[in-house]
Design goal:
Blueprint (H helix, E strand, L loop, with lengths): L16 E8 L9 E10 L2 E9 L8 H7 L3 H4 L5 H12 L4 E3 L2 H17 L7 E3 H8 L8 H8 L9 H24 L17 E6 L2 E6 L8 E3 L5
Parallel strand pairs: 1-4, 4-5
Antiparallel strand pairs: 1-2, 2-3, 6-7, 7-8
Helix pairs in contact: 5-7, 6-7
Length: 233
């Protein structure tokens, strides 16, 4: 795995992946710490294995965080520090594409902060954020939280906001959205998921330039692929 290069956000569904989720002491990857990390390994759309560990953050957990995730100081008192857990997590995810909800703006920042703290480099795994996916293929929903998707698909939300439970919930939602996208494609309807960059697999974003509109890769400047907007997606 290339740990020197930060992973790219991809578009669309993949059958082989690891869905993961974090619980933390707060919202800042700079000042807050991971207190639970869980993951579910999937091959050909089927769950193969799970990983879950509480983490001692080395500081008190704020009451506001405990109210959300239910994790208390007593629960992590005898848990290992992040350094002791991190190697096992990296072994579990391997080179797989990571999947998670709102991970582009939140969880991936915590993962890369941990990688920088422990190894002085970024996480190389590419990833799919199901929040972006849901906004594109579930336009009938007014809100796109993970629990909103689960309710829409008739998936249990019991135990929400604990990392492993959220992984299991998200895995089922990801598969349902994958089926919906495939169904739309087969029926001749336009696929509402954003197109992947043909060069690197990132997401193509419509932008306006000096000479008009064009599609450019969201992984710029790492990838400089562009295409004239007249060639519509």
């Amino acid at each position: 795995m290339d740990r020197q290069k930060k992973g790219r956000r991809l578009a669309g569904y993949r059958p082989d992946y690891v869905v993961f989720d974090l619980e933390t002491t707060g919202l800042s990857p700079v000042t807050d710490r991971i207190i639970e990390i869980s993951a579910v390994k999937v091959k050909d759309g089927k769950v193969q294995d799970t990983f879950s560990a509480l983490v001692n953050p080395g500081r008190p957990i704020p009451a506001a965080a405990s109210r959300v995730n239910g994790i208390t100081d007593a629960m992590v008192m005898d848990a290992p520090a992040l350094k002791a857990v991190w190697g096992r997590f990296l072994d579990f995810i391997g080179d797989e594409i990571l999947v998670g909800h709102n991970i582009h703006s939140f969880d991936m920042k915590f993962l890369n902060a941990a990688m920088q703290e422990l190894y002085k480099q970024d996480l190389g795994n590419d990833y799919i954020d199901t929040l972006y996916m849901a906004r594109n293929c579930m336009k009938d929903l007014s809100r796109h939280r993970l629990v909103d998707l689960a309710v829409c698909f008739g998936i249990s939300t019991e135990g929400a906001h604990r990392a492993l439970n959220d992984c299991i919930m998200n895995q089922k939602c990801f598969e349902e959205m994958g089926r919906r996208m495939a169904g739309s494609s087969h029926s001749g309807a336009r696929n509402t998921e954003k197109e992947a960059c043909p060069r690197c697999g990132g997401v193509l974003v419509k932008r306006n330039g000096r000479y008009g509109a064009f599609y450019g890769c969201a992984n710029y400047p790492g990838c400089r692929y562009t295409r004239n907007a007249e060639n519509n997606i």
